[in-house]
Design brief:
By secondary structure, this protein is α+β, with helices and mostly antiparallel strands. The protein has nine helices and 19 strands. It folds into two domains: about 140 residues, Trypsin Inhibitor V, Chain A (2-Layer Sandwich), CATH 3.30.10; about 200 residues, no CATH class. The two termini are about 50 Å apart. InterPro entries: PASTA_dom. This is PASTA domain-containing protein.
């Protein structure tokens, strides 16, 4: 019996014990489980951790683990092990096994997040071997791809095991310090280069008398806006003009990046060390091509576009359903189907009928990963 068949059989048995009248289409559950395998094995640990913390007594039932006070934690089936070769980026590059910024807490998305616009970025990175430095002058020791979708409060990264929900709140992250912009703030940034120069610099320093520190932050921020940030084409062009017109930035035309694409290079040095950064940009198409950094290696930008979220990426995350007013039996089935470590606890209520759900935490609509703990409060009556 394969792992998938065993998983389906176990799930069918549990659902039958809980609510025989409800059918579960395991042929749809198993593929969904495979898509979410990036978070595999986490659910069982979380569920057992809730039961065993503090050395409190527990008792197993056919529905889960009974905690002191009568609460019950639902079991979570382990995610099936991945089969077949690891996924690659849309450009065919190998990907990381785990997300760079894993989502730990539930993400509360805006309404219509599935149909919203996302900033799709595909890069190829190269670094030198350990002990031999990195950057464009170092021999290539490893090449790794990255593919991400940045949205208004919802972000995804493609890993070797599938799409993964990211725990990101920042859209512009400068090494050593951070300046965060919401999507609304990004849209409000001026697209006139002179006005943008002053707006960016004012985050760090006096616009009329900037220090070397303020100018260094300005350079990094303008470079990030021109390359990795979800900036509109007009804002990206303005950021590039800001960068290339700074006094301590050397500009060279008619250069070639690592993919032999023609562009213009902007190079600057950091004040506290011998580190240099070069951004290569295609001014004709208004697109970033490459960032070369003597400390952090080379990032090659293969795709930077605003697009819709692919269905398979949206389907990789678990959305908390509306559990309020459900019966205990129905909630137990839903928790099994959604692979959630639900803890069911009773609470007196004068308004909710006995045996029905009063609330859930996380609430309806929150985005979570496989095995996420969910507290479900059920009415015990008045």
């Amino acid at each position: 019996m394969t792992d998938d068949e065993q998983f389906a059989e176990n799930l069918r048995a549990r659902v039958t014990r809980v609510a025989p009248r409800i059918d579960v289409d395991v042929t749809r559950v198993v593929p969904a489980a495979r898509r979410r395998r990036a978070a595999r094995a986490g659910g069982v640990t979380l569920a057992l951790g809730l039961a065993l913390a503090g050395g409190a007594w527990v008792a197993a039932t056919e529905y889960g683990v009974v905690l002191p006070g009568g609460s019950t934690t639902m079991p979570v089936e382990p995610s099936p092990s991945p089969t077949g070769p690891p996924l690659t980026s849309s450009e065919g590059d190998s990907l990381t096994e785990l997300p760079s910024y894993p989502s730990i807490d539930p993400v509360v998305p805006p309404e219509g997040w599935r149909d919203a616009t996302y900033f799709h970025v595909v890069t190829r990175g190269a670094t030198g071997p350990a002990g031999e430095g990195s950057g464009p002058e170092a021999p290539l020791g490893s090449t790794l791809g990255s593919e991400s979708w940045y949205g208004d409060g919802v972000n995804f990264e493609l890993t070797a095991s599938g799409p993964a929900l990211m725990g990101l709140g920042d859209y512009i992250n400068i090494e050593g310090h951070t300046r965060s912009y919401s999507w609304a703030e990004m849209e409000a940034l001026p697209t006139d280069p002179e006005a943008l120069h002053d707006a960016l610099l004012s985050n760090y320093d006096d616009v009329d008398a900037p220090s070397s520190y303020g100018m260094e932050q300005l350079r990094d921020l303008a470079a990030r806006l021109a390359t990795q940030a979800p900036a509109s084409p007009e804002l990206r062009a303005a950021a590039w003009e800001v960068l290339t017109n700074l006094d301590d930035v050397e500009v060279e035309e008619d250069v070639r990046d690592s993919e032999d694409r023609p562009g213009t290079a902007a190079t600057y040095q950091y004040a506290d060390d011998d580190r240099f950064r070069t951004v290569i940009y295609d001014e004709t198409r208004n697109l970033p091509l490459e960032t070369q950094d003597t400390k952090h290696g080379t990032d090659i930008y293969l795709t930077t576009e605003f697009t819709g979220l692919p269905e398979e990426v949206a389907d990789s995350v678990i959305e908390i359903p509306d559990l309020v007013a459900m019966t205990r039996e129905d909630v137990e089935v839903v928790c099994l189907q959604k692979h959630l470590a639900c803890t069911l606890t009773d609470e007196e209520s004068d308004t909710a009928p006995e045996g029905t759900v009063i609330s859930s935490d996380p609430a309806k609509g929150a985005l979570v990963i496989w095995g996420t703990p969910v507290t479900v409060v059920i009415s015990a009556g008045p």
